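Q: Two folds, back to back.
A: First:
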Amino acid sequence: MPFQSARRLYNIFVGAPAISKSDEAIKIGLIGCSNIAPQAVILPCRSHAEAVVWAVAARDRSRAAEFAKKWDIPHVHASYEDLIKDPQVDCVYISLPNALHFQWALRAIEHGKHVLLEKPATSNATEMETLAASPALQVPDAPILLEAWHNRFHPAWQTFLSLSREHPHAGPISKVHCQTYAWKGFVPATDIRLNYELSGGCLMDFAVYNMVCIQDVLEDSRPKVDDVRFRLWDDPVSKSQGGPSGQIDIAVECTLTNKSGVTATLTSDMSKVGDWPIVPRDWSKTWPSAGWPKCVVECDPIGVKDSSPTIEGSKHTLQRTLTLWNPVLMHLWHSIDIVDVHARQTSDGETTTWTEKQTIKAYSWRDVNKNLPGEFWWSTYRYQLEELVNRIKGREGSGVWMSLEDSVGQMETVDKIYVSGGLNIRPTSSLAGNLRA
């Protein structure tokens, strides 16, 4: 097991051995030389016969050339526009700051390019609705536009959903909680994720993962929003450029409720301090700290028919709780913990309780007895690439997807959380505003 874990991490971070490419491989162009591009696209492409990173563009051509040399990308373009117009490029990956997503995604689909668009897809719902309604996406054989919710494609997440929805021991979902944390200092003060003009904020980065996980579990892309609490970041970059102050959230908590009345709590903090075990709170209240990311689903009790003879008139119930540890980067490590609490009450009122526990891991579809492509070392991004290529090639694949309607609902919920918490919706680009006018 340690050897397998080491091999998995090596293949994820260093890259699996490159394989021969099909003559019909999809040529992907990178718009931006982002830190996430190697993990999200470059390394996953090495192990896919039908996908190749073909070109890269950046605002500074010399930076793009340096990036291309480092990652063996054969073509460099002087501008984003030149890359989009390259007839050899089939698909573009956009990993620019959030505020630039809409503009370049729209330009790409208007030129007939498929688009893998980093999350969140746009700055707000207005932009996402405009993008989804683009005439370029309404025609036969329209380009594919996929918002890059990579964790949705991993077998562990789909297994977690199945165990909470379809397993005979899972009663109706009664409560959900999802959390992510990073320690104070993890996100530098000058990071673009803390810049209002670039559509930054915790909700636009860390917390939006929690939100989409909750939407997935609740099967509701537009849940009701309540009890929003933000902790704010003093945004020196935005203020120095004349932007509004007090609009960048560094932490967020809120409650989301679906149409059936099931409630979920969301907690996310990009600069967590305190809560150290053993150490007195007053001592550690400014110390950087963290917490395990997790998604927890509690189910209502259900009646169970005993397989063995029981006392006549007894009543047997079971209540299931599922916890997925590390629901965003499951390829690094994850664990699905299943806790079933049993209670058997006899006719004379005597109750016996006991607990059964089980842990499941699903690094590949084979781990959960499904005959679908995948290796134990595939990352969430590699599974995402598999489905993107399947969709472009017209194949069914696993059936997991992020629809445009899902993306619109997600951005509507982001906007509702900001408004409910007393903050501004992230700025709409002038291009989107003009198209909506």
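A: Second:
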Amino acid sequence: EACEDTAWHSIFHTLTWTGLRRSELLGLRWKDVDLILASLRVVQSVQRLNTGEFIVQEPKTASGRRTIALSPASCLVLREHREKQEADATLLGRQLAEDDLVFSHPDGSPRDPSTLTLAFRRLTRRIGLDGVRLHDLRHTMASLYLEQGVNPKTVAERLGHASVTITLDLYSHCLPGVQEAAAVQFDTAMEQAKSTSAKMTPELVG
């Protein structure tokens, strides 16, 4: 909410809602985003070398190349972002293409990854959350998913982890609450099973 009226809103929203790494976000092209089917594909990342040169890299592992489902809220944010990007491109005498980066400068050139980190640091300091890192947005998504009882394998796939073991090692602190909820749900399921069995017994006896 703190960045909702800023130019960074669509970037920080997408990072939080998808759990993408910074380099993966900056490598997204519009042809990798399907706002009708509500999904995006991670197929490349953008890195900036010490020389100032930008390079495009494919995911290092098969799990890094993945498809991520988008929530309705994320689709809305990305639609609004695209409309603004199209307007900016028109002002510069160019048309937005499907090969264009989703999060770029108005002229279509890649963003420096460090500018995202600096902007986020300024934002968190302004609202009294100094010390919270940009990468913590990824951790927030994973933690909330696990606390809501989402299968760890699903979370691992969303994060692009090579193994669910990595996810469990990183976020095991989120699981105690999940296990407590599962225990309560099991009680409920057993009570329902007993009730169903009691109703069926007279029929079987008769």
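Q: And?
A: The radius of gyration is 22 Å.
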